[in-house]
Amino acid sequence: MKAFYAVLLAAAVTNAAPAFAEPSSASPLLGVWSVDVAKLTTPPAERPKSVTITYSEAGAGKWRTKVDVVLHDGKAVQAISTYVPDGTATPVEGNLEADMAATRLPEPGVMVTALARGGQPGSMRTYTVAPDGKTMTETVVYFTQQGVPAMRTNYFNRVR
Questions:
Q1: Which residues are within 8 A (CB) of 65 and not within 5 positions of it... i.e. 6 or more apart?
Q2: Distance of alpha carbon 7 from alpha carbon 39, whole angstroms
Q3: Half-sphere exposure in the Cβ direction for 94 (13 Å, CA)
Q4: What total of structural domains would you count in the chain?
Q5: C-alpha 30: how far from its chain's center?
Q6: Model pLDDT, residue 26
Q7: Sorting pLDDT into bands at 50, 70 and 90, what band is 2?
Q8: Disulfide engineering: 81 pairs with which of 11, 39, 89, 125, CB 3.0-4.6 Å?
Q9: Confidence label for 97 from pLDDT (cuts 50, 70 and 90)
């Protein structure tokens, strides 16, 4: 279940990309996205009822990511991060799966995120908006409890 919460948090990009795109209202990432719950790889009984990610501009070159989740038992949880998308680590409020994130925008429709909790690496995520701007994929790279690298893809639809 803990690994699933990786789906829930969008926040930051790694330092792997040498440059980043300046945040702008032209970025197709900005807006509200809802995960396609039916396509999650989590067992159906453990899947959340909903996951919504909102990317918005926060002024002064900063972005804000807000993740709202309604868990399978109906409990609502939220995570929020405000950051400059330049790869610098910033705090994540909320306590889902990460307390720090680093974000970079290598191009307008792509966001790369690195998450950590308690000083320990968490997962890496790449968010890519489709050319039509209606869907977004999240590729999550993480390590199993046995230390084996793994990947999964989650699918989001634009709400607005």
A1: 9, 10, 11, 53, 54, 55, 79, 80, 81, 83, 103
A2: 12
A3: 23
A4: 1
A5: 13
A6: 74
A7: very low
A8: 11
A9: confident
